[in-house]
TrEMBL record:
Keywords: Cell cycle, Cell division, Mitosis, Repeat. Transmembrane segments: none annotated. Residues 359-379 are annotated as: Disordered. It comes from Clavelina lepadiformis. This is Anaphase-promoting complex subunit 1. Residues 995-1069 form the Anaphase-promoting complex subunit 1 beta-sandwich domain. Belongs to the APC1 family. Residues 2-307 form the Anaphase-promoting complex subunit 1 middle domain. Pfam families: APC1_3rd, Apc1_MidN.
Length: 1329
């Protein structure tokens, strides 16, 4: 550190007196070279606050340097600075007018600006300030002006906007933009200061400016500072880019500008009504059909809360809400009370809370768990079926937890023991029906419950007891009837599947699945329950096994429980459908010996497990065309048992599963598979279907195992010696189904001809009726586009030889002629009903879930046809058709037609279908067949699929799943799986999709009614591309749907284009579509006929003056008094409509409040002693905007009654005002134009004193009314015209001389003012026009 002393710098010697050499030093210094001194005060920017680009004298002043100004006349610089200050304050003053909250500053600032304008001799501003503050009118009327400046000096003093030809009032410039579409001089704004002026004029410029030049221009500050240099210039560019988007409409550009500029609803509310009305009306025209891609803030600014709510995560919260009495069509007596009645609102909220508590108590009450309200009785259900209880009726038919009713009476001569045996026998029959209900209940309850994630699924118990007429319990506890052990295995399996299918698909936690395992599984030493086996299958169908680990899978499989293995394999394949997952494929291959290596250990796998594994492989490899899988499945269709252990009664089921799996692997591929052409799959399948000799057959001794004498159970299995023939009893169903799926929707006519029914009796006798049914269905599935929903199309499949021998189709009588003595009556009738059933199955699959009326009518016709056969009397015919056809085949045909009919209207809750299912449910006079009851209740489940929220799809995957589920071979008893594995009946889930469109009222968050327009893609069977329906309704498939639109007079429109936004369809079907009521309408539940809307309610007389409590009631009385005056019938009608509008809808629309404000302004102008002139500007702006909008379109014609009512009110007030002040107006205002030839408006002292005495009679309220009159009628005082004429250039004065020559004639016409019949407006037009 240095020790030298610190020398302090020298301080500059202060000077008191500035010298000229100091100034010369600054001019010659480097500071002057780097930075122009003139820029300190005067900028060279064309956007200077002193001089605009429109000013003609800007270049002249630019040549004046600062030094010459200081050295010369300092008064010129002072005037320039004072003028600039005046301009800045004037812009701030005009900014105050654009907010209703700052109007109170106008009376304070106007006197100051009036004084500045008077001192600067800017006389055109005086009239503007006097209009804003009428107390200044007296100064104008009594003032004397002199011509003290030249035109050049005047123009050099102000920029272009402040020139003599411009309009100084901001409202007047906005009015010019609306009326003429242009603004002569751009409106200046100070960035960061007059922000409201900038935004509003830019918005008006985008909406109404028809020219190419902008109506706004920014101004730079007087002095450049660091603060002003960092102004928001870059932000303005970002905001302005939205106004220049050529690909959007002006209203959308303005909307995006307002959103990005931070203009919210609160700021718009602060704008004066005349300013905000054109903006909001323009925006709300786009609100009718807004672009859904707009940001949420833009939709919220439009007032479309329905579209905003649609995108929120809480859009689906309405589904967990309890019943709401006010939206319940079954409880019309419970209506919402008026909001102004606090006690009524309190009672209403208490009522709702009581109902919600009651609803929670019923869920906790075990006795009410099985009631329809547990997931089915909600707001949507009551909207769907408001007039009946079909949902509850259907649920009761599918209820298996209540004891069965045994309606037997003890006859005379029968003792108690024998009567007890009768009741037990009847209970055994009813048990077949009760065990067959679970599949249908799973359909109806599909994804209707939302259980807790920490609780196990509640499985309903299968009730195996009954109640007689004396309410005594009947059971098999002490009965001699012994039921086989396998009787209840599959019903319990179905019960577990149905219980898990009722769970919504948002439960994916593996801990939740393990909770159910611990709850419904015996200890490790025992086997799992059948319910949990079915629950695993249900978890897979509901996609709840996605996180199941390999260790958990082996934990299930190591128990070797047949039902658990079936449920797990099918569940995993369903969860990973069409994924070709390698790990799952390895797991399935272990259970299929054909997929194992030749040297692998032979495993003893049950045939039912193998059939399930083969089907699972088909779903796992859906549409993959894998060669190995296709080759193996083709070979497995005609698999021959190799050992004695493989001889099983389920061989037909295994062959059918192999055929289904082959068809799924090659789903819809047809012949378009060159990589598999060498396998000749189609020819081999045709060979399996038609039979004859086996190809490349080598005799094997294993055929002996099919000998009737080889096995003790051979008689039960009814096995035959096959030899070298193809056993079509085994291979035909599987081959037929493989061809049906392989050529699905291919319209291959050559392959379809393979399935034409034979036209000779000898060939018909060689085909089994069930196989003929499958062939007819397969032919229609291949020729997908040629299926016609009509009776004629169904009858066209019946060969001529059958129709020839049918004497009467309705009674099914065969024509026995002498020539046809050998005609087999059984063949004729069985083939006839089988072909009809096959064609009906094809119709049901073709139009599944479409709600096609023609298909439904056709299928309903054949269902009634089959039912009519059962009702034919036994003695009327030689042989009853039912006995000839056979009960098993007849039940198969009947239930197939019934299922097909219900698939067409799936999820609709069709009442006729419910009645037929209920009839078959209770028609148990004879022996009850388990399979028929299963099919009947499956049809009932299709009708109420997922609580009428789901329907069926017709995609290739869906058709394959439906074909497996409704395969027309139902079990004879609960343990029967010979022809079709019962677990496959639940695969319909893979064809289910949610398609119920539920409108949600955005105000109440409750479902409601609305009318929607469904636009279809053009098809051969849909001549009308657009269909209107009342939602809640079922939507068509997405492949046939083009758009969905809410087109209801009570709700704002919503349009969803499914083609452009396919993901939006899934969102609105899951969460509902939110709708918003239009102003003036009530929901359909509260007002079904529309009698309570303001357009239909008769006008009521407003309350008396003593009973008026609200300002709205005062307006009603005011309008009612207007309608009682002597007006035309059209004006009376308009006023009547306006009165009803205000009476009914004063709390709904945002723009309505603007019109209400205009009416309030009208009342204030008439009633107040001193009306506000700023409010009169709002009347003028609104009137001109509505007039221009009505000329351009009819959209705003609805607002004409409002403006007519306001015009009537103002005209009445101004007529009285002019009549009262006529003499004063003539002497003070009109007479001042008599000295028209004088360049300077002068006044004698006597005239001045006379005017002072007359003006004393002019009160302040009169001046305010005069200002309002001049503003509303777009008139200017003569003083303003004379002032401009007096200070105009000689050229302007000469151009006006001719106009003044006719002044005397115009003044003579003022005498007509004495005539009371001449309106005041006509007189003023004669004066000023």
């Amino acid at each position: 550190m240095s020790s030298s002393p610190v020398i302090a710098p020298k301080k500059a010697r202060p000077t008191v007196k500035a010298e000229s050499k100091d100034w010369e030093y600054l001019l010659e210094s480097k500071y002057n070279e780097e930075d122009d001194p003139s820029s300190v005060f005067i900028t060279d920017n064309e956007q200077s606050i002193l001089f605009l680009s429109q000013s003609q004298s800007y270049s002249l002043h630019k040549r004046k340097s600062m030094d010459t100004s200081l050295a010369g006349d300092s008064s010129l610089l002072t005037n320039q600075i004072l003028t600039s200050v005046f301009c800045a304050i004037h812009l701030v003053y005009e900014e105050q007018k654009l907010s209703s909250l700052t109007w109170q500053n106008i009376p304070t600032m106007s006197p100051l600006l009036y004084r500045l304008a008077s001192d600067l001799q800017q006389y055109k501003f005086l009239y503007s300030y006097a209009l804003d503050n009428p107390t200044l009118f007296a100064k104008i009327l009594l003032s004397k002006f002199q011509d003290t400046c030249e035109d050049g000096d005047l123009e050099s003093r102000l920029p272009g906007y402040f020139s003599s030809d411009s309009k100084s009032c901001v409202f007047e410039n906005l009015d010019d933009l609306v009326r003429t579409g242009s603004c002569k001089y751009p409106i200046p704004y100070i960035p960061g200061v007059t922000v409201r002026t900038e935004r509003i004029f830019k918005i008006f410029d985008c909406l109404f400016n028809k020219g190419t030049t902008s109506s706004t221009v920014p101004l730079s500050p007087l002095m450049k500072t660091m603060f002003s240099a960092s102004a928001s210039g870059q932000d303005d560019v970002v905001e302005d880019k939205h106004l220049k988007m050529v690909d959007r409409q002006p209203a959308e550009r303005v909307l995006l500008y307002m959103v990005n500029g931070g203009i919210d609803e609160a700021e718009i509310t602060a704008w004066p009504p005349g300013v905000s009305l054109p903006i909001l009306e323009s925006l709300y025209q786009s609100c009718e059909n807004p672009d859904l891609s707009l940001p949420l803030s833009a939709l919220k600014l439009l007032g479309r809360t329905d579209l905003v709510e649609q995108t929120l995560p809480s859009a689906g919260d309405w589904k967990t809400a309890g019943l709401c009495p006010s939206t319940d069509p079954l409880r019309f007596a419970w209506t919402d009370q008026e909001k102004n009645n606090s006690q009524s609102e309190k009672d209403h909220s208490e009522l709702i809370s009581i109902l919600e508590e009651g609803h929670q108590n019923t869920e906790e009450n075990e006795q009410e768990k099985s009631s329809p309200s547990a997931g089915l009785d909600d707001n949507v259900t009551r909207l769907l079926f408001p007039n009946d209880h079909r949902m509850a009726d259907a649920y009761n038919l599918l209820q298996s937890t209540k004891p069965m009713k045994i309606l037997l009476t003890q006859e005379a001569g029968i003792d108690d023991r024998e009567f007890m045996e009768q009741k037990e026998g009847r209970l055994a029959q009813l048990l077949n029906r009760s065990m067959a209900l679970c599949i249908g209940r799973g359909m109806m309850m599909y994804r209707t419950q939302n259980p807790s994630a920490v609780d196990a699924v509640e499985l309903p118990e299968l009730e195996l007891t009954g109640k007689d007429l004396n309410n005594a319990t009947v059971s098999f506890a002490n009965s001699n009837i012994e039921l086989p052990s396998e009787t209840f295995q599959w019903p319990r399996f179905h019960n577990g599947v149905a219980a898990t299918l009722a769970i919504q698909d948002d439960k994916t936690s593996m801990s939740w699945v393990h909770i159910n395992k611990e709850r419904y599984t015996f200890p490790e030493s025992s086997e799992p329950t059948f319910e949990h086996s079915g629950a695993l299958f249900g978890f897979g169908l509901n996609h709840h096994l996605q996180e199941l680990q390999t260790l958990n899978i082996h934990e299930y499989l190591q128990k070797s429980h047949e039902m658990t293995t079936i449920g797990l394999l099918l569940g995993l394949a369903s969860d990973k459908c069409a994924s070709c997952d390698l790990a799952t494929m390895r797991l399935l291959s272990v259970h299929i010996s054909a997929l194992l290596p030749p040297t692998s250990t032979v495993l003893d796998i049950p045939h039912r497990v193998q059939a399930a594994a083969v089907m699972a492989v088909g779903f796992l490899c859906l549409g993959s065309s894998q060669r190995l899988v296709a080759e193996v499945m083709l070979r497995e269709i005609d698999r021959f048992p190799s050992t004695e252990t493989e001889v099983s009664p389920e061989r037909e089921a295994y062959s059918l599963s192999s055929g289904f799996a082959l068809g799924m692997v090659l789903l819809g591929k047809g012949d378009r598979m060159p990589e598999l052409s060498d396998l000749n799959i189609s020819e081999k399948l045709f060979h399996y279907m038609t039979g004859k000799h086996k190809r490349n057959y080598t005799y094997n001794r294993t055929h002996e195992y099919y000998s009737p004498s080889h096995s003790s159970n051979s008689n039960n299995f009814n096995q035959i010696l096959e030899g070298d023939q193809v056993n079509t009893e085994v291979t035909c169903p599987g081959a037929t189904m493989a061809l049906a799926l392989m050529f699905l929707k291919t319209n291959n006519q050559a392959v379809a001809d393979w399935f034409i029914a034979p036209d000779t009796m000898s060939l018909l006798e060689t085909i089994k009726p069930q196989h003929l049914m499958l062939r007819t269905m397969t032919r229609a599935l291949i020729l997908w586009d040629q299926v016609v929903p009509s009776v004629e199309w169904v009858e066209s499949h019946i060969p001529f030889v059958i129709r020839q021998h049918l004497k009467d189709v309705q009674t099914m009588q065969v024509n026995h002629n002498d020539e046809d003595v050998d005609v087999d009556e059984h063949t004729i009738l069985q083939c006839h009903v089988a072909i009809i059933a096959g064609a009906c199955l094809a119709l049901g699959l073709r139009f599944a879930g479409s709600q096609e009326k023609a298909a439904y009518v056709t299928l309903h016709h054949y269902v009634q046809f089959f039912i009519s056969i059962t009702k034919q009397p036994q003695m009327s015919l030689p042989s009853h058709p039912l006995e000839v056809i056979g009960h098993r085949l007849f039940e198969t045909c009947l239930t197939s037609c019934l299922i097909s009919m219900c698939m067409v209207v799936a999820g609709s809750g069709n009442l006729e279908g419910l009645q037929i299912c209920r009839y078959l449910h209770h028609s148990v006079e004879g022996k009850i067949n388990y399979g028929m009851q299963m099919a009947t209740h499956m049809a009932l489940g299709f009708l109420f699929l997922g609580g009428c929220r789901y329907s069926l799809s017709t995609s290739n995957k869906a058709i394959a799943a439906l074909l497996v589920a409704i395969y027309p071979s139902f079990p004879a008893k609960s343990s029967d799986n010979r022809y079709h594995l019962q677990a496959f009946r639940h695969l319909y889930v893979m064809a289910v999709e949610k398609r119920l469109l539920v409108p949600i009222d955005v105000a109440t968050k409750r479902p409601c009614y609305t009318q929607v327009a469904i636009q279809y893609l053009p098809t051969a069977y849909n001549n009308s591309p657009t269909i209107k329906m009342i939602a809640p309704c079922m939507l068509p498939e997405a492949t046939y749907l083009q758009s969905i639109a809410v087109e209801d007079k009570r709700h704002l429109p919503v349009h969803v284009n499914v083609n452009k936004r396919p993901n939006k369809l899934g969102q609105i079907t899951d969460d509902g579509i939110y709708v918003q009521l239009r102003p003036g309408f009530l929901p359909y539940v509260q007002d079904p006929k529309g009698h309570c809307t303001f357009l239909s309610r008769s006008r009521k007389r407003p309350p008396a003056a003593g009973n008026i409590k609200h300002s709205g009631d005062q307006l009603l009385s005011y309008l009612f008094s207007l309608s009682e005056t002597d007006q035309s019938s059209l004006q009376k009608s308009n006023l009547s409509r306006l009165t009803s509008l205000l009476q009914e809808q004063r709390h709904h629309s945002k723009t309505f409040f603007l019109y209400l404000s205009l009416l309030q302004i009208c009342c204030h102008i008439e009633d107040k002693m001193s009306p506000d002139p700023l409010s009169a500007w709002q009347i003028r702006l609104a009137r001109n905007f509505i007039s221009q909008s009505s000329n351009g379109s009819s959209q705003n014609n609805k607002n004409d009654p409002l403006m007519q009512a306001i015009s009537v009110s103002l005209a009445k007030m101004f007529d009285n005002f002019v009549a009262d002040k006529k003499s004063i107006l003539q002497s003070v205002i009109f007479n001042r134009r008599s000295d028209a030839s004088s360049r300077i408006l002068t006044r004698s002292q006597s005239q001045h004193e006379k005017d002072q005495s007359i003006l004393k009679e002019f009160r302040s309220s009169d001046l305010h009314k005069l200002a309002c009159y001049l503003i509303c009628n777009n008139l200017s005082l003569p003083l303003s015209d004379k002032t401009q004429q007096g200070f105009a250039s000689p050229t302007k004065r000469r151009s006006r001389s001719k106009a003044d020559e006719s002044l005397s004639s115009i003044l003579n016409q003022l005498k007509q003012l004495d005539n009371a019949q001449v309106p005041h407006l006509t007189a003023f037009q004669m004066l000023y026009c």
